[in-house]
Write a structure and sequence with these properties.
There is one protein chain. This protein is an alpha/beta fold. It has a single domain, classed as Rossmann fold (3-Layer(aba) Sandwich). Helices cover 42% and strands 14% of the residues. It contains 8 helices and 7 strands; from the N terminus they run βαβαβαβαβαβαααβ. Strands 3-2-1-4-5-6-7 form a 7-stranded parallel β-sheet, sandwiched between helices. β4, α4 and β5 form a beta-alpha-beta unit. The protein is globular, with a radius of gyration of 18 Å.
Length: 271
Amino acid sequence: MTLDYNLQNKTAVITGGSGIICSVIAKEMAKKGVRVAVLGRQAEKAKAIADEIRSEGGTAISYGANVLEKESLLEARDFVRKEFGDVDILINGAGGNDTKATTGEDLSFFDIKAENLKKVFDLNVTGAILTTQVFGQMFTETGNGCVVNISSMAAYHPLTKTIAYSAAKAAVNNFTQWMAVHFNQNYSKKIRVNAIAPGFLLTSQNRFLMQHEDGSLTERGQSVLAKTPMGRFGEPEELVGAVLWLCSDAAAFVNGAVIPVDGGFSAYWGV
């Protein structure tokens, strides 16, 4: 059996495609010959990423879609189908945290509002489920497809402060496994669902927890690096290899897996 890493002429839908992580994934997939549909809540930002991909010789389209509104996703599916035809890959990249659902000096656990908890759960979990309902249905029609969800180290070990985010990403892991089984048992043995669990990157969503305004590390940032054997934060580009592998036929027997890309964080208990 020959391992095939080729993704040429595949079509990928990427939600959260204008975000830090998924914009990098979109650009790198396009370089591998993938036709990329960049979906984002802010249509102009999604368009900017698609424009950049095309300017570098790739094939990309964009659409302003809200992953929490099924009708919006259905419209996006119609658009992608018209432009590219069948979809081979779905990257559920929309997600993130919210300072209003994060404990700290200015917000105790007892004062977090239900609507802020729900916002984080919806963005990370409900959005992934709804998007998989809409685009995953295309996989049931063709009998083939690959879904990659974006989890987090917070799913493995609940992190202090991020109560909603940790619980939501744990749910993403569970959904990944559940969906992998459901597709195989009910529709096709050739549909796969996996996830990557990034370690600690500095993004707009977590920088306030990791760095002071002057760029120096917070106590939390220092703790993260102390527990990361490689001793540094990751870069968005360093997540792409695992995603490309999971989407390729080289990972044809990988299903229901959550792959850490974390510099060893999940392997080290501090002793």
